[in-house]
């Protein structure tokens, strides 16, 4: 079973990461899809997208859930029918979920790519990172910041939240593997814990 990583964040909060290495036919085995999910799967044009969708259903199965246990609200945010909190991510050949009994959660996996240098001014104050001379380290740091903001965006779960103006990530050292972040919107400020890890040229960030 290609469960790549299983992380216990807290007693009641867990992260599961899958590495997609199987043919589509293999991923279709051992899981049941609702009619809505079957239609959604059939409408996907990309095989990798289909594999991502199915591998997430395998992660749900590992967590003792089925495809029928997950529902999406009007903003596309996933929820579990039993009231627990969930967030989902897919990037290339990795997928991940975070499930918690007690916290609102968000997760994001991103491939570390040079193009993040071009889009950085759209989601963070790039001047804060000008002291990082090593390009690879800068890409790594910006990918963590993006993933953190994406995770917080997923927790909020509604539109109108802007990465640059409403979501803030405190500075961090790579060795810490964690930081904090804030959502400041509509006169409210909420602080979240953020943790991150890197593997095979990818970055996974989760917030709670």
Essential attributes:
single chain, 208 residues, alpha+beta, Ribosomal Protein L22, Chain A, 2 domains, 5-stranded antiparallel sheet, 6 helices, globular
Query: What general outline do the C-alpha atoms trace?
Result: globular
Specify the number of helices.
6
Oligomer: single chain
User: Any low-confidence stretches, pLDDT <50, length ≥5?
Assistant: none
User: CATH class of the largest domain, anyone?
Assistant: Alpha Beta
The SS-based structural class is: alpha+beta
Please list the strands of the largest sheet in the order they lie side by side: 7-11-10-9-8
How are the elements arranged and paired?
Layout: E1 3-10, E2 13-19, H1 24-27, H2 35-42, H3 47-62, E3 70-72, E4 78-80, E5 85-91, E6 94-100, E7 106-111, H4 116-119, H5 135-156, H6 163-166, E8 167-169, E9 178-185, E10 188-199, E11 202-207
Antiparallel strand pairs: 1-2, 2-6, 3-4, 5-6, 7-11, 8-9, 9-10, 10-11
Describe this structure in words.
- By secondary structure, the chain is of the alpha+beta class.
- The protein has two domains: 101 residues, Alpha-Beta Complex (Ribosomal Protein L22, Chain A); 100 residues, Ribosomal Protein L22, Chain A, CATH 3.90.470.
- 28% of the residues lie in helices and 34% in strands.
- It is built from six helices and eleven strands.
- It has a five-stranded antiparallel sheet. A four-stranded antiparallel sheet has the order 1-2-6-5, sandwiched between helices. The chain has a two-stranded antiparallel sheet with strand order 3-4.
- Strand 9 and strand 10 form a beta hairpin.
- The longest helix has 22 residues.
- The radius of gyration is 17 Å and the shape is globular.
- The two termini are 28 Å apart.
- The mean pLDDT is 95.
